[in-house]
Amino acid sequence: EKSLDKGKKIALSKKDIQGLASIHNISNIVYFTQGKYQKALEHIESALEYQMQLNNKLKLAKYRANYAQCLNQLNEIDLAIEQNKESIKLKKELEEIKSLGASYAVLANTYFSKGDFSLAFGTGIKAIAIFRANNMINFEARALVLVSDSLMHLGRYKEMRGYTEQAESILADFDEPFLIGKLELMHSHFFLNENDINAAIDHVDSCIDLFEMAEQRSFLLDAYIHKMNLLIKQNALSKAKRVMSKINMQSRKLAGSEG
Fold this sequence. Notes:
The chain is an all-alpha fold. The longest helix has 22 residues, at about 235-259. The chain has helices at about 1-15, 15-35, 35-50, 55-75, 75-95, 95-115, 115-135, 135-155, 155-170, 175-195, 195-215, 215-235, 235-259. Helix content is about 85%, strand content about 0%.
């Protein structure tokens, strides 16, 4: 942060508008990675303010995509969609196909947050095609997980399995416990739909282990709730009660971290 502040002072003294825009964009990325979304938003708004004074449409498009990501995290969904569409429009004008995949992926994630899973699926497919054509393997895997999740929410379980298998084949080479955990949760829902409760429990247990490893408390809480419901279906009420105590503990931890 000190280095970035020093860079800003130098850029201001030289009246380097592009330098100021770039430094604020880097600050946005740093704060976004740390989960400090409001601070990230402040910096990307400053980056856009400076960038709009210059004639560089590609940087403007990329900054709008970063702005959309922040807005999405802060639940400003409609504005996030608007900014993402602006980013996509600019990239299409510039024929900047490679980076267009990232804009489609962010837009798909925003549609998912809004609960519009059909649009999330359709937009995610566009992102996958671009990532695959440009050999952007890790990004492709993330888009495959999002598309799979969208299909699960649409109840299209058999179709979902095709995408989860593709994602798993890629993620086998990466250290991504959170993404693999999400896939395990999808498998659990698939087997629940097939009325195979034992297999559903096995997969949610794997999911819980992975979410704990990734320290994803909100997702861990959802996984425990899913497991409790599975145990209730099995009439394993004493086990369900033990899981309920874990749910209460995770809820307290989550409330403490948010406070």
